């Protein structure tokens, strides 16, 4: 098996705008901007927010607003959605919003699209109103977005102003083989949510590569893998910090969601063996440890799966520790090219 140099792999950030215990969404947004500024300086390629609703610890519901906030506070790093849940929105509204963002911040905006609601069914009904029972066609809506962004759409009666004629990269996001098939058929880059849905990761990216059709947007398949990362100076410290994300996912498993809690000395005092098994299954693609551990495990992951880009999300309670984790991860990937680009 050939070794892929980590120096040649772009590395990026997924921010869920996690609200930690004792803080507010206002604190979270300030920390997101601070992290984005550090990420830009460290050579990170993208900074994405994910659309979620009705989750007490996730404040990224107004995704386009946060993208604009971070893009305004940075100057080079690409900023985008990972993703916009398209069934919640009219393609025209998405085209206008991202056309506006791309007009203000040219060549810096990404549009990642997902087919899930990003919430529970009751909240999805509140979002969609009378359209809740309507049959949604994700492929059709993606194609409609491509049409609205095209210069050729200028002769149509319905136009995205701004948005029309702008180069706004569209990504397909997913956690299943369905999304992989669509990304392959449309010749679009594919971002997989392996940070919480690892089960179909290998089969999905293999299906995507095997069925990829070159398009005007992309000539070769491109796989971005989102993973959990908790890096610290030592393995022991990282394992301690990682108990916050373990508790976070335990809330997902049990349905008892709460603000991101501080780390604890022993998870065995908190979870049952069944909860532990479920959480560890969801966190399969997590990189937890000191620099040497992270580098070794990340190298193996990239080689085995032929990853084109790694996107890291880090649920770490202390903001300074979170910044430091991203600093250590950047050192794993950083190349002279990345440094020159972001100096």
Automatic annotation (TrEMBL):
One Pfam family cited in the UniProt record for this chain: Bac_luciferase
EC number: 1.-.-.-
Protein family per UniProt: To bacterial alkanal monooxygenase alpha and beta chains.
Keyword Lyase: no
InterPro entries hit by this protein: Bact_Lucif_Oxidored, CmoO-like, Luciferase-like_dom, Luciferase-like_sf
GO MF entry, a single one: oxidoreductase activity
Key word Oxidoreductase present: yes
Top-rank EC class of the record's enzyme: oxidoreductase
Superkingdom of origin organism: Bacteria
Protein name per its UniProtKB record: LLM class flavin-dependent oxidoreductase
Alphabetized UniProt keyword annotations: Oxidoreductase
Span of domain Luciferase-like: 11-264
